[in-house]
Amino acid sequence: MAFVDPLIEIAAWVQAELVNLANPWTFYQLAIIAILFVVAKLASRELENRLESRARRIKGHQGLLRVIIALMRRTDWILFVLLLFAALTAMRAVTWPSRTLLLSLVMSLSLAWLFTSVISRIIRNRLLARTIGWIAWTYAAIVILGINDEAAAFLDTLALPLGQTRLSALVLLKAAVLLTGTVWLAIVIGNYFDERVQRSDELTPSIRVLLGKVVKIGLVIAAGGIALSSVGVDLTALTVFSGAIGVGLGFGLQKVVSNFISGIIILLDKSIKPGDTITLGDTFGWIRELRARFVSVITRDGREYLIPNEDFITQQVINWSFSDEMVRLDVPFGVSYESDPHEVSALAIEAAISVGRVDAERRPVCWLTGFGDSSLDFVLRFWIRDPQQGLTNVRGKVLLALWDTLKENDIEIPYPHREVIMKRPADAPPSD
User: Fold this and answer.
1) Phi-psi bin for 163: left (phi > 0), alpha (psi -120 to 50), beta?
2) Are 189 and 178 spatial neighbours (Cβ–Cβ below 8 Å)?
3) Is the pLDDT of residue 367 over 90?
4) DSSP string, 168-219
5) From the CA atom positions of the chain, what is the Rg in Å?
């Protein structure tokens, strides 16, 4: 069978290496390796504690700190590689190079493990980082051992014919590695571009978000296509599969697609943008971020609502800062009939102006709105520029200032009077 030949070659290589192990110098090298490993373990304990206290002083460079911490966590392996290199150099100076093959092999494998383990620490997901690290080290070990051709031939024999396409384990492995690498690189480049765009003052916030998302999605799609085409996958063969995905999206993921399209519409028509103060239903707050599926809204009490994009398209939204940051607020109040309404109006305007958040350029107004049952009814109207700082608090400050002003000028704020008449039945006995 086709897959037997690679296995025979690998078995022959293993047998030849086992024969070489019978050499006395092999045991000498094993002893040296064991001793150096123990020495590296013992020396790394004290060295790692000293280095970690200094590394913690690094501020503002999270990526660099992660790499340094990852290196410190592998201090024993770093020392082990350095000791192996020193021993290898000394032995080659006094004996034949053939008597140091095992040392050279162990040093190469250790160096490959050190490199892959440190690089994989950049990935925040531990499971994914370990998986990628083991895969990368396994590939490096196969290359170092010199059996990469035999391993590739064996993986290529494990194939599944799909019509005119032959899908082997080797192709799947190459596709997975290339796809992971290219997509990761595309995400890194997309995030860098997004950060640069967000710093641009010449673009509106909505255009910044739209450009960042379009570039990210485009780079990921292009990376996937490049990775698949690099391993020989015919992209035209995926048309049927993509059509099936489209049908599935239309039926099973219609809400997800609806929110995604709604997010694009929101970015294009610029109806809302990061920093806007909005009211949607019972939710009042300001927009922190626009995502592909939802909008992040933070309220005054610190809660963060993740509202689907579709709600901003289908429901009524109050955008307090859509075209102008100025917002008008009304404060109704009443005074007794003995008060002069002209004086009350002037005092109310002065009280509102005394509050810091009230805009003095657009002068507040106070109007008599009606003759109530027990009071003259007024409404005080004023403007603010920072609705994201809250509405209830500024209304409260204006009411307190109004209370102090009316009290200083002996203007009474009445409360309703009620007259209660109690009647006794005619046949009721007289009370004592």
Assistant:
1) left
2) no
3) yes
4) EHHHHHHHHHHHHHHHHHHHHHHHHHHHHHHT-SSS-HHHHHHHHHHHHHHH
5) 38
C-alpha closest to that of 279 among 319, 313, 307: 319
The residue with greater pLDDT, 181 or 33, is: 33
Kind plus residue range of the DSSP H or E element containing 122: none
Task: Evaluate whether residue 421 is within a structural domain.
Answer: no
Q: What are phi and psi of 202, to 5 degrees?
A: -80, -15
Are residues 143 and 15 part of one domain? yes
Q: Where are the beta strands (DSSP E) in 214-355?
A: 277-280, 283-290, 294-299, 304-308, 317-319, 327-335
Question: Residue 110: helix, strand or coil by DSSP?
Answer: helix
For residue 51, the enclosing domain spans 4-157
Looking at per-residue pLDDT, the higher value among 333 and 208 belongs to: 333
**Contacts for 105 with CB less than 8 Å, ≥ 6 apart:** 144, 145
Of 139-148, 263-272, 280-289, which one has max mean pLDDT? 280-289
Q: For 151, left (φ over 0), alpha (ψ -120 to 50), or beta?
A: alpha
Number of domains, the chain: 4
Q: Which residue has the higher pLDDT, 23 or 216?
A: 216
Give per-residue burial for 25-48: e unless 16+ CB within 10 Å, then b.
Answer: beebbeebbeebbeebeeebeeee
Greatest mean pLDDT among 145-159, 165-179, 309-323, 413-427 lies in 309-323
The tokens describing 417, both together, are 């009077």
Helix (H) or strand (E) holding 271: none
Q: Count Cβ atoms below 10 Å from residue 124 Cβ, excluding itself.
A: 8
Residue 140: closest CA among 169, 105, 168, 172: 105
pTM for this prediction:
0.45
From the list 396, 403, 397, 398, the residue with the least C-alpha distance to 381 is 398
**pLDDT tens profile 49-102:** 666 666 666 655 555 566 666 677 777 778 888 888 888 888 777 776 666 777
Is 150 a member of any domain?
yes
Tracing tokens 């709600």 back to the chain, one arrives at 311
* 192: its two tokens: 């860098």
CA distance 163 to 134: 34
432 in a domain, yes or no? no
Segment holding 240, helix H or strand E: helix 239-251
Q: What is the DSSP letter of 98?
A: G
Q: In this structure, is residue 431 part of a structural domain?
A: no
